[in-house]
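EI: anyone free to look at a 191-residue chain?
SC: sure, send it
EI:
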Amino acid sequence: IQDDDLITYTADVIQATVSEDAGFINFRIARGVFGAMPEATVTFEVFSGSATAGVDYTPFNRQVVTFAAGELTKIIQVAIVDDNVAEANETVVARVSDLSAGNLGSVGLMTATIVDNDQVSLAVTALQSTAREEAGTMSFLVTRSGNVQAQGAVNWSVTGSTLGNVSGQLADLTGALTGAVTFAAGELTKT
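SC: here you go
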């Protein structure tokens, strides 16, 4: 008679950090080799870490995973939702429990991080490198790239290496020294 309590399970995330457009988070459950491996079941569950089920990943119901006799590894895939929302990276947490045979060893919670792929990048370019005081204005081109499908805004301010350090510098400037540039959905540039 073989003691199936000596079978130890491990569980991990195959790639702990995945891009939002990767398609899936792959979790792995494995059991150590110890003689004949009988059929066994474990329960796999997914919890929202900072990610939201139905928004950031496809809701995943508690699932009983069956190992056939002799089978050593199971891969469980959780589908990622690739949205068009710029957001912070978010986590999905999973755990294994309720073994029918063997023990969990030191298996704890498994955490995967979904890396957002919807960030917007901004570049600011002076349309002229210098301007005479009598010109009245200096213009800058603000260009955005990346996920530009939504409207967006960026705050700006006038600064410089001598601005505010030399008496009278601020007196040379008229108009606002701070403001915001607002982009419509799909809009790439503003002056």
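EI: The first strand starts at residue 9 and ends at 13.
SC: 👍
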